[in-house]
Structure formats: C-alpha cells, structure tokens
Amino acid sequence: FFASVEMAPGDPILGLTETYLADSRPGKINLGVGIYVDEQGRIPLLPTVHEVEQALVAAGRPRGYLPIDGLPAYNQLTQQLLFGAESPLLAEGRVATAQTIGGSAALRVAADLLKQVAGTGARIAISNPSWGNHHAVFRTAGFELLQYRYYDPASHGLDFAGMLEDLGKLEPGTVVLLHACCHNPTGVDLDAAQWQQVIALLQERRLLPFIDMAYQGFDQGIEPDATAVRLLAASGSEAFVVANSYSKSFSLYGERVGALSMIGADRGEATRLLSKIKQTIRANYSSPSAHGASLVAGVLGSTELRARWEQELGEMRARIHAMRAGFVDKLAALGAPDFSFINKQAGMFSYSGLSEAQVRRLRDEYAIYALDSGRICVAALNRGNLDAVAAAVAAVSG
Ligand code: PMP
Q: In CATH, which of 2.30.29.30, 1.10.10.10, 3.90.1150.10, 3.40.50.620 is domain 12-45+315-397?
C-alpha cells in the first residue's frame, strides 16, 4: 500500500530547532523560533490565564463536546476584540464567527470554503515574503497562488508602490491575504493611511480582503493593532474575512485557540456563511477543543481580568521594544552598519537584512541560530544574550 509514498520535505523552522537542540556548544542561542519567550527564555504562563485555569480545574467540569462552531461566549468576545464592542457590523449581525484550532485552522477552513465558492477560478495573492504556511494551506485547498510585492530589501521597509501596482493588476474576485500587524516574517507593516489606500483599491477592483491577525497587541496594543480590521469594517466593504489567533497574545500556543470571522453583506448572508463554516469544520475535525477557549473566554469575559491581561500583553510588548532598541544601540556602539530600521519593524520578528552566508557564519562560528532568510525572533533576545548576539552580528556584517 505505502511502498510508493515519498518522504515529504521537512519544515525548515522545525528543522533548525532540531539542529539547535543537537548543538552541544555552551551559550548557543536560538533566534529562529516563532514564539514569545520572557527574559529567562521561558514561554510565560500569563497570571490571568493561570487564574482562570485554576478556577476551571477547581470546578471539576464535565468534558462534553463544544458546538461545531465552538464556545458561544468565546466567539462573541472575539468579535468584540476584533471589531470593537460598538461595531455596527456586530449590531447588524453581519459577522459569522467560529472558534477554530488556532489561527491555522481558521485559514484552512476559510480556504476550503472560499474554494467551494470560487470553484476552478480560486486565486489568492500573498505578500512576498509571507509566513510559509500561507502558501501550503491555500495551495492544498486548491488555490492558484499569486504574489504581490511587499518587502523592499534596499530600505528594509515596505515597497508600497510595488504593492499597489501588483494589487491593481489582480483579476476581480481574487482573494488578497494581508497581515493585520506585525508582519511575519518581515516586521514591516502598513500605516493607517496606507491601509486606507489599499482598502479603497481592493474595493474598486472587487478583490476580497482576507486579514490574518496572529499578533494583535504585540505592536502597539489591542486597539491600534486592529486598525486594518477597523478601517475595513468602516469602509463599507460588503465582504471580507478575518482569521485571528490567540497563540501569542495569550501565550497559549499548544492550546490551539483561534477564530474565523466572515463578514457578509447582511444578516442573511452571515447566517448562510456560518452554516457553511460549520459544514466545513464538521467534515474536517468535527468540533474544536474546549480548554483553551474556556481560558480565553474566562479572561476576556471579566472586566477586571481583561484589564490585567492587557497589562500582561503590554509587558511582553514593552520587552520586545526594549530588546529592539538595545540591539540597535549595541550594534551602533560596535560600529556595525546601520541597523536602526530594526526599531521601526513591529512585533516579534525582524528581517535583519543578514544574508544567507552571514546567517550561516552566525550558526557555524557563534552558535547563533537564525532563519536563512535573515529573520530573527526579537523576543528571543534578553539582557543575558544581547551582548553576544550584537557582537556576533557586528562581526559577520562588518
Ligand atoms: N498567521 C501567521 C502570520 C502566523 O505567524 C501564525 C503563527 N505562526 C499563524 C497564522 C497561526 O497561528 P496558530 O499557531 O494559532 O495556528
């Protein structure tokens, strides 16, 4: 039966972690990861999450199935977080939201559904570069993949003119995948005025905006990081999609908490969309798991816990900003080429501008691991390793 099965290529990021773990050099540093770790290099358990979890355990609740579309309170609180509690979209019943297994399943469920709607002409435009799984998910769902220009290596910033030009050439009906904030892997985002321009262009060309928001709260805060979603909601666009993840913002990676929201033209359309979302989930994994969603709903559903959670999120964000600034300062003090652009990039990641050869030298000569693309996880920096990383980066880039 399986003799003809070939070996699938390994995941490059997980492969890097395996090499890192096997490295016996003391003082090795892994900047290749995609998670937030604290000053001690640990994944934090947020105190608010811990508190809700202890209460849940103490209550000794039975373990029934959740509905196909997940925990109702979680979905409602998610809508409020994404669109704002006062959003007319919510009042008008235009948003169909379902809890999903992380942001990844939100992407996949939406991809399957959108493919059903579009049929053989399903096309999606993805930023160049983007998170690798975007391509895998939409390709596997049967989409034709297109790219639009995004990152400009010369300025280490956004190629906005190139982006507009490429989006302007897309066929009507094409899905356009956009990172809401903290673009993975570059850390380069659009500002509000640029979002306005992109949204107007998508409307004019009848392109479907698909926002992936995996890092809400990791750049400026819950509200400002939702700018793209809020502007879309206010734009009069009759349809768009949002996939969101709580993996990072609640430090709940392994609990797999995310949601898919599809916005329709009216209540009837949203009701039909939700029925299709449920049908798609049912045929994939039947229903999502309960624990992580109960934790998120427990925190977001309490005014007091929610306020404390925003502070905890603020501490993660502040540490990332401090590491960016510290890294840039140290590199400057060491006489390295200008790395000040790292301060302008947002979120956990930075496209450092290091070449593949420089990344290899970091690994071989200094036991410092980064992705071949030059992406580093700024959250993996701390006061204990900052000097060593800055010295090594200055050495390979000098
Ligand atoms: N989108 C982007 C841009 C991401 O970086 C990630 C996580 N690495 C996801 C979606 C998926 O998140 P989750 O782990 O919740 O499935």
A: 3.90.1150.10
